[in-house]
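Dock calcium ion; give full complex structure.
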Amino acid sequence: MSRQRILVIEDDSDIANVLRLDLTDAGFEVEHANSAMSGLIKAREDHPDLILLDLGLPDFDGGDVVQRLRKNSIVPVIVLTARDTIEERVRLLGLGADDYIIKPFHPDELLARIKVQLRQHGSETLTLGELQLDAQKRLVNFKGEELRLSPKEFDILSLLIRQPGRVYSRQEIGQEIWQGRLPEGSNVVDVHMANLRAKLRDHEGYGLLRTVRGVGYSLRSA
Ligand code: CA
């Protein structure tokens, strides 16, 4: 299981350092940005699993940052704020923040809130050997490189990777991925499997996707 990544957007370097230590200890990978602009760029480029956002940043107000983030991302955002008024909380949540925590806060409370958000957003990375699949971002990595899959290829892989070694019949795959809407005798499943296998082979993933003749398909379990 790869570590989940948290982007901390905070201009106070003391607070940022403490957060980095606490979050790293808790098993997260931490990225830091010290301004709104660099935070927005990192958010777009690095696809963090969650963002901790300070409200008082040197370039823009944190509220503007939330609003900009929300234009193209559903990443969970927890706001760190010293301004504790009802109006402020309502404003932040209205802009699209998922939660907020009042400074100064206890690290345990912050961690608890982070976990709630990650759980609610279903951020989930599935790993099988050198294959990693991020269910939320719909990204697949194999041997450290992104595997470019079609939506259906992705769905098939994410079905198979949940139970490595289990053999899925064509009918089962047709049922799960196409909700049984494939016509009788259709070879669509086989075509997608062939494409998926070719893409794995391009990255030297030989033998990873197995065909069990007359039965179906599975991902090698080890
Ligand atoms: Ca600040």
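Observed: The mean pLDDT is 90.
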